[in-house]
Amino acid sequence: MVIKRESDMTEKKTQKEQMEDLVALLANWQALEVEGITFLTELQGTTDNPVLKEILEIIKQDSGQHRRVQQLMIDGLTKQAFTLSPEDVALIWDKLDEHDQLEQATISMAHDARRSAGHPVIRYFLSYLLADEEKHHRMLESLEDIKRNLYPYGW
Ligand SMILES: [Fe+2]
Ligand SMILES: [Fe+2]
Fold it and tell me: What's the gap in Å between 73 CA and the centre of ligand 1?
């Protein structure tokens, strides 16, 4: 039996080990997404209610997207490292900004629609859409932080 010396046990993980741990975690997460997709598909078969079917479909589609993004991160960590410079973002910034105007318009539409909706199922879906549109807006806002070079470390 090898007894580790105290200094070995408290030794910090190397950057490579941390990266490998992260890749393993992302792969486990991916497995859960795939498991979830199978489970939700089976569940959809057990209900005839179109509202419930749609809710399950939304989550299922998101799981597919999550799995794809996790794969992108795994590839970025293990194959070709990511690059995203302020210049990359600046090159298409005008178009991104134009699209962000659209996202913001949909946010106020979702607010208006939810205010005028009385039916709980309509309100439920409008709340979902509102949260999604706000998320799209935030994603573009975060890109602006990159363009403004607010992350001097690691990009
Ligand atoms: Fe997910
Ligand atoms: Fe959107």
Answer: 14
In a domain, 7, yes or no: no
Cα 111 to Cα 116: distance, rounded to the nearest angstrom: 9
Q: Is the pTM of this model over 0.70?
A: yes
Would 112 be classed as within a structural domain?
A: yes
Residues 74 and 52 in one domain: yes
- The residue range of the domain holding 120 is 85-155
Q: Which ligand is nearest to the CA of 29?
A: 1
pLDDT in tens, 37-57: 999 999 999 999 999 999 999
Last residue of a domain, one of 37, 67, 82: 82
Residue 7, phi then psi, degrees to nearest 5: -65, -35
* Coil, helix or strand at residue 2: coil
CA of 38 to the centre of ligand 1 (A): 13
Tens digits of per-residue pLDDT, 62-82? 999 999 999 999 999 999 888
